[in-house]
Design goal:
- The protein is mostly helical.
- The chain has a single domain, classed as Transmembrane di-heme cytochromes, Chain C (Fumarate Reductase Cytochrome B subunit), CATH 1.20.950.
- It is built from 9 helices and 4 strands.
- The strands form 2 sheets. It has a two-stranded antiparallel sheet.
- α1 packs antiparallel against α2, α2 packs across α5 and α5 runs antiparallel to α8.
- The longest helix has 29 residues.
- It is elongated and about 80 Å long.
- The relative contact order is 0.14.
Length: about 260
């Protein structure tokens, strides 16, 4: 009996195992401590600030602002619900105490961080965008990548991208200092000690309006920041801000 012909079947290639995820040190201890202190402080200040705003929910430009003046922005009644304010029931005096106490927790660490980041070159090394990064084509490419939820991988994930750099520089070196200065300009005691603050912002009511705008921009930054953390992987992202160690996503094929 003839032997059956042997048919060679193609052997399926077994894909190589994925490379082990590399663990890298991403955030220094001072950065992590300042991040979490700032997170608590900013939320308390935003919530207490909304209670303060409830006392007179109108904004003006210039030196004066009263019930009969024409505001550029007005919310009738109490615009901020109790669940979003500190305290949750209407109490202007308590809200001011909360706001002032946490203002010191915002101002002093911020000043120390600004000085330290300049001295240890953290601002120049990690936050300042390079000449190539600020080109419109590069910024537009990053916007497109974020819109497609294609976040940096490999070594690029260990560095801030240009959108992060621009937003962090704007918040740390412009938005937060401006909030501090406009907050001081609304204090009668500081107006007496530093009258140039009123001249700088064009009056106490203008300072109050700028303070409100900065708070709204800061809230918008926080919402975008939290959304990006959730989309990029909250366990890895939040874990790196707690321990400093980051699980580096492997390079995608075609990534440089």
């Amino acid at each position: 009996m003839d032997d059956e012909p042997v048919i060679d079947e193609p052997i399926e290639e077994v894909p190589p195992p994925p490379p082990p995820r590399r663990i890298a040190y991403r955030h220094r201890l001072p950065t992590r401590l300042w991040h979490w202190l700032n997170a608590i402080t900013v939320f308390v200040m935003l919530m207490s600030g909304m209670m303060i705003f409830n006392a007179h929910p109108h904004l003006y430009w210039g030196q004066y602002g009263a019930n009969f003046d024409h505001p550029w922005l007005s919310f009738h009644g109490r615009p901020m619900p109790g669940w979003a304010t500190i305290p949750s029931t209407y109490n202007l005096a308590a809200a001011r105490r909360w706001h002032l106490a946490f203002a010191w927790l915002l101002t002093v660490p911020l000043l120390l961080f600004l000085i330290t980041s300049v001295l240890n070159r953290h601002a120049h090394r990690d936050l300042a965008p390079t000449r190539d990064e600020v080109k419109p084509s590069h910024i537009w490419h990053d916007i497109q990548e974020h819109a497609r939820l294609r976040f940096p991988t490999g070594d690029a994930a260990l560095r801030y991208n240009v959108l992060q750099k621009l937003s962090y520089v704007g918040v740390i070196f412009a938005l937060l200092p401006l909030m501090v200065l406009t907050g001081l300009a609304m204090s009668p005691a500081m107006d007496a000690a530093w009258p140039w603050l009123l001249d700088l912002f064009g009056g106490r009511q203008s300072a109050r309006s700028i303070h409100f705008i900065c708070a709204a921009l800061l809230l918008g930054f926080i919402l975008v920041h939290l959304t990006m953390v959730l989309l990029a992987g909250p366990i890895n992202e939040i874990g790196s801000m707690i321990t400093g160690r980051f699980s580096v996503p492997p390079e995608r094929s075609g990534d440089g």
